[in-house]
Amino acid sequence: MATIAKGAHRPRSPFLGQFDLFYTCEILFYARPREQLHILKECSPLDTRPGLRGNWRATAAASYFAALFQRVCPPEAPHPELFDLLDSVLDFLPRSPQPLAGPLIAELKLLQALGISPALDACLACKRPIRADEMPCVFSRERGGLLCGACAGAADGGAAVLARDVLGVLRFWQAAADARAAAACRCAPAQLAKIASILDLFIQYHVEVKTPARAVALSILGS
């Protein structure tokens, strides 16, 4: 939802210092349903996230996630579980032990919250469980998960071969209770680059969202 803070830039405005990018705030507003731009009456910061103020790489990732969550949430509709997830992601990003891993873990957790997680346990064609030593297997963008070696011929043009180590990382992240627990798994740059490309294929196809901020954020974090 969107609000307008009238007079916010005046020297004696009660809004001075009360809100900024990525703050979590408690607000009081006058609803204007027709205009879809409500009038902000009061604003009290609950979490100012100082960790993002001194970490420009994490700030780039936070910008991407703010845009992504806005795209997947219909306006004026309550999504408490997604609010809590974004709140935790914004706290996690500046503390991620591997800057590039943070956004990728957060993307996977968002997909879980939306109920469209990649299927990583069994072949989506023959339904047979895929063990970690049964390699190679293929990640199918169209089907939204894995195909075993025998069924790999049914893969679409957006398929990607998955190595054992990359599959292990994805499974660990998916099973972790939250982003901080998932970050305990340290990854090589090549592994993160492969996971980034796989999640990009999945998000564009199944969430139907393409944000230029993603490429910018991942480029910054990988530099």
How does this structure look, described?
- With 223 residues, this protein is α+β, with helices and mostly antiparallel strands.
- The protein has two domains: 1-48, no CATH class; 49-222, Up-down Bundle (de novo design (two linked rop proteins)), CATH 1.20.1440.120.
- It contains eight helices and six strands, in the order βββααααβββαααα.
- It has helices spanning 50-53, 56-72, 80-92, 101-114, 164-175, 179-182, 189-207, 212-222, and strands at 3-4, 24-30, 38-47, 137-140, 145-147, 160-162.
- A three-stranded mixed beta sheet has the order 1-3-2, with no helix packed on it. Strands 5-4-6 form a three-stranded antiparallel beta sheet.
Lay out the secondary structure.
Blueprint: E1 3-4, E2 24-30, E3 38-47, H1 50-53, H2 56-72, H3 80-92, H4 101-114, E4 137-140, E5 145-147, E6 160-162, H5 164-175, H6 179-182, H7 189-207, H8 212-222
Parallel strand pairs: 1-3
Antiparallel strand pairs: 2-3, 4-5, 4-6
